[in-house]
Amino acid sequence: MTSGGPILIGCAHGTRSPEGQATIRALLDAVRLAAPHIEVREAYVDVHGPTLDEVVAGVDAGEGLSAVVVPLLLAGGYHVYHDIAQAIEARPDIQAAGALGPDARVIDVVLHRLREAHVAEESTLVLAAAGSSDPRAQADVDVMAEMLRGAWSGPVRVGFAAGHTPSVAESVDAARENGEEGSVAVASMLLAHGVFQERLHEAGADTVSGPLGPHPDIVSIVLDRYSSVVNA
User: Fold this and answer.
1) What SS3 state is found at 101?
2) What are the b/e assignments for 12-34, b being 16+ CB within 10 Å?
3) CB 3.0 to 4.6 Å from 140: which of 28, 72, 75, 149, for a disulfide?
4) How far is CA 31 from CA 27, 38, 214, in A?
């Protein structure tokens, strides 16, 4: 434990994309800049290291709270409820925070990325999530889709890059077949570039917005998730 409190372990999925890896590191650097008193370490649950198991093993055990794992994931699911939970189950001095979403600030960033992509407000949106077979992850995405519907003037559908149906491409096709007015845009709800973001560009939409990280609102959510455990 550092003098600034428990270590913050930012745990992302992992990607082979160099751009995606750089995005996660930029996000963690932004967290360090926003909270210089907190030691921040990076970890991943898949694709590449350092793995969360390795990072947890490198944390010195303390009598109190030694570290908080903040999932750099936009919805709960297998990685949160199984992988992360399993990695810390033998370490009572390390606790896990919740996923970054649902959170209204995630939708604020989605809207910011749509504006950057010059998506017209009457367009039909397909909110594109990573996807999971875990119903808790699907419920989180549904909550955020409702948030987006409250902030967007056009229709909003949901699509998944993997792991669940409808796929993003299926939702784009359904919007066109239903004759919904305006263009069809995919609103990325992915944190970083990688194979899933590439799939969004193959779904047949008129426009695809960029991934959400790094963004000041995402940094704020990471720190809030950390603080919710530290101050519990």
Assistant:
1) coil
2) bbbbebeebbebbeebbebbbee
3) 75
4) 6, 9, 10
User: In this structure, are residues 87 and 56 in contact, taking their beta carbons and an 8 Å threshold?
Assistant: yes
Kindly state whether residues 125 and 218 are assigned to the same domain: no
One-letter amino acid identity for 46?
D
Is 2 part of any domain? no
d(CA 132, CA 160): 8
Q: Which of 111, 213, 196 is nearest to 161 (CA)?
A: 196
Instruction: For residue 35, give both structure tokens.
Output: 């909270």
Q: What is the CATH number of the domain that holds 95?
A: 3.40.50.1400
**pLDDT means per 10 residues in the chain (232 residues)?**
80 96 98 98 96 98 94 94 96 97 98 97 96 92 98 96 93 90 93 96 97 97 98 94
Hunting for tokens 């792991």 — which residue is that? 163
